[in-house]
Amino acid sequence: MMVGLEKVDLKAIKLETEYVGEGVQEENRRKAQQAEVRKSGTQFKRQKTEENRSLIALTTGQSNSIVLERGKSPLDDSSISFASTICPAPLCRQFWKAGNYDDGLNSKTTLQNGKSYLHVHPMFLHSNATSHKWAFGAIAELIDNAVDEIQNGATFVIVDKILNPRDQSPALLIQDNGGGMDPEAIRRCMSFGFSDKKSKAAIGQYGNGFKTSTMRLGADVIVFSCHLGDRVMTQSIGLLSYTFLTQTGHDRIVVPMVDYELNTITGNMEISQRYDKEYFMSNLSMLLQWSPYSTEAELLKQFDDIGSHGTKVIIYNLWFSDDGNVELDFDTDPEDIRIGGDVKKVQAIPAWRSVNEQHIANRLHHSLRAYLSILYLKIPETFTIVLRGQFVEHRNLVLDLKFQEFIVYRPQTGGCKEAEVLTTIGFLKEAPHVTAHGFNVYHKNRLILPFWPVVSYSDSRGRGVVGVLEANFVEPTHNKQDFERTSLLQKLESRLKEMTWEYWDYHCGLIGYQVKKKLPPIEPPQDSQVSSPSLSNSGKMKYVTLNHGMPNGGKTKPVTLNQNHHSIRVKAASPAGLSSKRKDHGGDLNKFESMKRQAGTRAYAHNLEIQSVGTTNQLNKETMNLIQENKKLHAKCLEHEKMKEDLDLKVRQLRRELGDVQQEYDRLMVELTSLDTVKEEKHGGKLGVSDSQHV
């Protein structure tokens, strides 16, 4: 492995522990390094060329798809890019300033088999991660990967703080017991643009979340993954290090990786036969130099608590905030991870300030435990999120609402129905003491917009009105913190705004506010039909016509119903059906007929009012019965779905256990065969000795 150049290489690119990630270097040290690099000259270039041959590099081809170079590079020395001979800029520990990276080289293309390839520059790691404005959003991306592994048997995901063995600095651990990744899968995970998630229920879909989220949280990440499949157990280690790339001045993304396979005969993990030993040792040397672990034994020890399947992600060299402290606060609460320390102060009257500050609508922005509790609309009971050693209790925001209503929204595009969305809307239980409002919009079970304020209320209009819905007909952005601004989203926003105003105007009296909206004046019926309003599927008022069988029915005029009461007020009037064309036979006769008609009309109006009240009460009872029956059926459906998920999970677990037993059986059979061979050899040896003695 190029032993003659090893000393020069270490002097040229070694990153000393005491200045990893410092923002400013001593000027004389930089000058000394520059002089030493220039002194090494051609030897250093040749050394870096050989390293690039043996490392995994990310390149883009003519199809613009990102691919991984494996094994020795087929490129000749003249076409391989190499590390800059200019001393790299020190790595800044503040994320939003760490992108000021200049390797002293222009963008390069290389030729491979006559085709032009464009290298992915390390600066892309940082610029790509800027899509995450919020650190908790980056952590949620990594949790999504674990939740997607539920279909492969995952039962937990651990989020915790650990210490970097090299300098005892805090690092972030995220570990699950899913199916793990084989050598090919981990290479796709740590490259760009690949996604193996074909399931429609899978949260991730772009194949970019791992890179953006890890690089947003820290400068470096090391991944340990164990996979058991086709009776082959593999262990893979990969390192994506912004520190390594910037400190060595690379002009392309280089990802060191090593793989091990279980030898079923010896029962030991051995170097994978996928690549030659020189390739393996070159990658291993980079891992030991730039990862938190300085020996191969320490690396392999990380698999002890993973088992036969699962993935462990360790993010180290965590980014700092503007005040010079680590952005993720592990100290304020030993059972939580926070941003910015304590809860954000809320502008409210003193008596209500505490309830507003402690409400989840405020805490989710600063407490990871609060955010993770509502991150998923529903989650299997067999799966748990463990934060800092404590289970995260799942919270259904629908249960936080009082005076609930259910509204069906059917978005349409070009006359075609896109979906049918059930929205639950109501007042927060703490209303009117809390100022929080808005809609919690989920996509494929994942929270995208928490407490989305579709209205900016004035004079408290809309205060405490909160809704929950799952909108799978609109697409989230790459960071899963917003939706793509399409016409469908604009229609949804407008509809949610209408829902908020309608709900507030008709129900604000339930939380102590005066109903300000003037109801339409009550108009008398002119025929045998009475109409009462109700909420339509779109959430707007629609009229249900009630026919009481009066003769000479005519056109229907709606009668306004106050939804907060159960009565209809109808004023007396002369129905059009009772009027008839008659000749004038004198004033007295006309007066008598007029008095008869008025008397009949009053009697009819009185009877109509009684019938209307009775019919309305009956309709309300039937509606409540239907709602209760619907809730029962919905609960049964959820129960059956849960039973199905549990049974599917048990089947997967049994299959996995069967595979483990089969593997153990194969191993024991191999041992038995080897023991039989040894016995035969010993027996043959004894026979040979006895024969010689006999002779």
From TrEMBL:
A GO term from the CC aspect: nucleus
Gene3D superfamilies: Histidine kinase-like ATPase, C-terminal domain
Cofactor(s) in the UniProt record: Mn(2+)
GO molecular function: ATP binding; ATP hydrolysis activity; endonuclease activity; RNA binding
Cell location: Nucleus
Predominant subcellular localization, coarse grouping: nucleus
Keywords: ATP-binding, Chromatin regulator, Coiled coil, DNA damage, DNA repair, Endonuclease, Hydrolase, Nuclease, Nucleotide-binding, Nucleus, RNA-binding, RNA-mediated gene silencing
Coiled coil ranges: 637-671
Highest taxon in the source lineage: Eukaryota
InterPro entries (alphabetical): HATPase_C_sf, MORC_ATPase, Morc_S5
Limits of the Morc S5 domain: 366-504
Listed GO biological process terms: chromatin organization; DNA repair; positive regulation of defense response; regulatory ncRNA-mediated gene silencing
Entry-linked Pfam families: HATPase_c_3, Morc6_S5
UniProt family annotation: Belongs to the MORC ATPase protein family.
PANTHER family linked: PROTEIN MICRORCHIDIA 6, ZINC FINGER CW-TYPE COILED-COIL DOMAIN PROTEIN 3
Protein known as: ZINC FINGER CW-TYPE COILED-COIL DOMAIN PROTEIN 3
Species this chain originates from: Salix koriyanagi
